[in-house]
C-alpha cells in the first residue's frame, strides 16, 4: 500500500498550492491505516452466526454512508473498503450531474407545481462482504464493497464539494443546509472517513472529479459576482444554484434507496456474481428503449397499443429446436415470421433511425446499448413551462414520422418503430415477389444493407399517401411501390451506383477490388446528414428531382474525390461507361420493338 501513502502526500502537497477554499484532504478519501489491509480472510466471529447471505431490501443512501443501513443500534461496520481488484472509478462529471437532473424529473409534479419530497428514488443494489486482516484489529469490522463503487464514490465526491461550499458561505440558509446534510450522513463528520480506497487510478480520478466539480461552482460564483443588478438581500444566482443542489442531495440521502446484499465468503461472492451473470445478461438496445419509453405511458389504451406493436416483432420467438416441435405448419410459419421481424428491426430499422446521428449503419454498431440515449427522444423540461414543451405536446399524437426528426418519447417511439418496420417488411415482400433492384448485380451484404436503407429513406419521403398511413398493411405498401415507376427507377439507379463501387469479377469492373465498410461509407458521404446520399430524398422536393440529384452525385467526376485513387477512379469510369452503353442498347431495342408494334397495327 506504499503507493497509496505516496499519493496522499503528493495530493496534499498539490492542494497546499491552491486557493484555501479548494482544499481536499486525501485522508477523507483514503484512511491512512488502510495500508495494513491485505485481502480477504476468515469471517469475523461477529458474523459467524449470521445466515449465509443477508439481503437488506431497502436502505436509504444515508443509511449506507453511516453503515447502519437504517437498522437500530450502533454502526456494525467501521469502514467500507473499495478493493483494488475492482474496476477503477471512472464516472464523469456528466454522470454525476445526470443523477441530480434525474432527481428533478422524477419528483416534480407539473399538476401540483411542486417537488414531491415523499417519493422514493431507487438507485439500484450494492454488494458487500466482511474483510479482515489478522495483523490489524482496526479493520476487523470492515466490509469490502463488491458492487456499487461508481455510484457511492460519486455521491461522496458530491457530498464533499457541497458541504465545503455550504460551510464557507456567508449565507445562513446555505450553512444550515450544509450542517444538516453532514448530520444526516453521521455525527462528527465520521462520513469523511467511512470509505477507504487503495487503487491508484481511482484515487487520481476522484481528485480530478472533485476539482472539476468544484471548478463548475467556482465559475458560477465568479459569473454571479459580475452581476451588479442583484437585489439587496436576495440570493445570488450562485447561491440559488448551490441551494438547489443541496436540496437535491438531501433528497438523495433521505429518499434514495439501495438494496444491500451482504455476502459472507469468497465462495458466496463467486456464486452471487455467477448468478448475476446468468440472470442478468446485458440488456439489448431494444430492451433498454422499451423500458425507458414505457414509463411515459400510463393510459390503458396506450399501453394496449404498445403491447400490440411490440408483440408484432419482439415477443420472444421459439428456439429452432422448439420450432421443430410445433405441430402444424401455420405455427411454424408464424414463429419464423416473428424471428424474421425481430431480425429486420435490428438489422434495418434501428440503423435507419440512427443515420441522422451519424452512427455507422452496421447492425453490430447501431444496436450497441451505448446508443440508447440517441433514441430516448426529447422529453422537454421537467416543469413543462418552456416553448419546447408546447411544441412537443402538439406533436405527441403524430402518426407519420420522418427519419430526420428527433425521436418522440413514449408511444411515439413505438409508433415510429412500427412505421419503419412496416416499410422494411414491404420492401422485403417487394424484393421477393415483384421487383428486386439488385437483380443481375453482384452486391455484397454491406452494399445490400445500404441499398435497403436508401429505399427506406425514399419510401419515408415519397411513398404514396394512400398506402402510407398507420392502418395500411405492409402488403398494401408493397403493392403501391411495385406500381410506382419513380420508385423503381430510383431503386435501380442506386443499386447500379453501388455495383460500380466493387470490382466483382473480370467481366464486371468496379472501383474497389476490396470494398471495405469505411470506403463504402466514404463514397456515400455518410457521416453528415446534409451530404449523405441515403438522405437524398429528404433534400429533394420531388421524386424526379431526387433521381436527378442521385445521377449528378454519382458521375465519375463527382465520385473522384471520395474514391481518392486514380486507378480506382478509372475503373469506376469504365463501369459507368459500360452501364451507359448497355442502357443505350436496351433503349434502342425497346424503340425497335415499339416501332414494330405500330407497323403491325
TrEMBL record:
InterPro entries: GmrSD_N. It comes from the Bacteria. Residues 80-293 form the GmrSD restriction endonucleases N-terminal domain. This is GmrSD restriction endonucleases N-terminal domain-containing protein. It comes from Sutterella wadsworthensis HGA0223.
Amino acid at each position: 500500500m506504499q503507493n497509496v501513502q505516496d499519493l496522499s502526500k503528493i495530493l496534499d502537497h498539490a492542494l497546499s498550492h491552491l486557493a484555501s477554499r479548494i482544499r481536499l484532504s486525501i485522508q477523507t478519501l483514503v484512511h491512512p491505516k488502510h495500508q495494513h489491509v491485505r485481502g480477504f480472510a476468515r469471517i469475523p466471529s461477529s458474523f459467524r452466526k449470521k445466515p449465509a447471505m443477508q439481503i437488506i431490501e431497502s436502505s436509504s443512501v444515508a443509511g449506507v454512508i453511516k453503515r447502519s443501513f437504517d437498522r437500530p443500534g450502533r454502526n456494525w461496520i467501521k469502514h467500507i473498503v473499495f478493493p483494488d481488484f475492482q474496476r477503477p472509478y471512472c464516472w464523469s462529471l456528466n454522470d454525476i450531474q445526470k443523477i441530480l437532473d434525474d432527481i428533478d424529473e422524477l419528483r416534480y409534479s407539473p399538476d401540483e407545481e411542486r417537488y414531491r419530497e415523499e417519493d422514493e428514488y431507487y438507485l439500484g443494489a450494492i454488494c458487500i462482504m466482511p474483510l479482515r486482516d489478522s495483523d490489524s484489529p482496526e479493520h476487523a469490522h470492515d466490509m469490502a464493497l463488491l458492487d456499487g463503487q461508481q455510484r457511492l464514490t460519486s455521491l461522496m465526491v458530491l457530498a464533499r464539494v457541497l458541504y465545503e461550499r455550504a460551510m464557507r458561505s456567508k449565507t445562513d440558509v446555505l450553512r444550515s443546509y450544509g450542517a444538516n446534510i453532514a448530520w444526516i450522513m453521521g455525527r462528527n463528520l465520521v462520513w469523511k472517513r467511512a470509505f477507504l480506497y487503495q487503487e491508484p487510478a481511482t484515487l487520481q480520478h476522484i481528485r480530478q472529479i472533485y476539482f472539476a466539480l468544484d471548478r463548475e461552482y467556482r465559475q458560477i460564483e465568479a459569473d454571479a459576482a459580475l452581476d451588479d443588478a442583484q437585489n439587496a438581500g436576495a440570493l445570488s444566482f450562485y447561491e440559488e444554484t448551490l441551494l438547489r443542489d443541496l436540496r437535491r442531495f438531501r433528497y438523495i440521502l433521505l429518499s434514495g434507496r439501495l438494496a444491500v446484499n451482504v455476502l459472507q465468503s469468497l465462495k458466496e461472492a463467486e456464486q452471487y456474481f455467477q448468478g448475476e451473470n446468468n440472470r442478468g445478461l446485458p440488456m439489448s438496445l431494444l430492451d433498454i428503449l422499451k423500458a425507458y419509453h414505457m414509463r411515459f405511458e400510463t393510459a390503458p389504451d396506450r399501453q394496449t397499443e404498445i403491447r400490440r406493436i411490440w408483440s408484432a416483432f419482439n415477443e420472444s420467438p421459439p428456439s429452432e429446436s422448439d420450432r421443430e416441435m410445433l405441430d402444424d405448419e401455420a405455427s411454424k410459419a408464424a414463429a419464423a415470421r416473428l424471428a424474421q421481424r425481430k431480425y429486420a428491426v435490428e438489422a434495418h430499422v434501428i440503423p435507419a433511425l440512427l443515420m441522422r446521428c451519424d452512427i455507422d449503419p452496421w447492425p453490430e454498431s447501431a444496436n450497441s446499448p451505448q446508443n440508447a440515449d440517441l433514441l430516448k427522444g426529447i422529453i422537454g423540461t421537467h416543469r413543462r413551462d418552456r416553448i419546447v414543451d408546447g411544441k412537443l405536446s402538439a406533436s405527441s399524437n403524430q402518426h407519420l414520422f420522418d427519419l430526420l426528426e428527433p425521436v418522440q418519447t413514449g408511444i411515439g417511439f413505438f409508433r415510429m418503430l412500427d412505421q419503419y418496420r412496416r416499410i422494411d417488411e414491404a420492401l422485403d415482400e417487394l424484393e421477393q415477389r415483384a421487383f428486386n433492384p439488385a437483380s443481375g448485380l453482384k452486391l455484397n451484404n454491406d452494399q445490400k444493407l445500404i441499398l435497403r436503407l436508401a429505399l427506406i429513406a425514399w419510401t419515408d419521403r415519397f411513398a404514396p399517401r394512400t398506402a402510407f398511413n398507420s392502418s395500411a398493411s405492409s402488403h398494401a405498401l408493397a403493392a403501391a411501390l411495385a406500381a410506382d415507376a419513380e420508385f423503381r427507377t430510383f431503386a435501380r439507379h442506386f443499386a447500379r451506383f453501388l455495383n460500380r463501387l466493387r470490382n466483382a469479377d473480370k467481366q464486371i469492373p468496379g472501383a474497389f477490388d476490396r470494398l471495405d465498410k469505411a470506403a463504402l461509407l466514404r463514397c456515400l458521404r455518410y457521416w453528415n446528414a446534409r451530404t449523405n446520399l441515403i438522405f437524398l430524398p429528404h433534400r429533394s422536393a420531388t421524386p424526379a428531382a431526387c433521381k436527378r440529384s442521385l445521377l449528378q452525385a454519382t458521375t465519375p467526376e463527382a465520385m473522384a474525390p471520395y474514391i481518392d485513387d486514380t486507378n480506382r477512379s478509372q475503373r469506376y469510369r469504365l463501369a459507368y461507361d459500360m452501364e451507359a452503353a448497355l442502357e443505350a442498347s436496351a433503349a434502342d431495342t425497346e424503340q425497335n420493338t415499339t416501332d414494330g408494334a405500330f407497323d403491325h397495327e
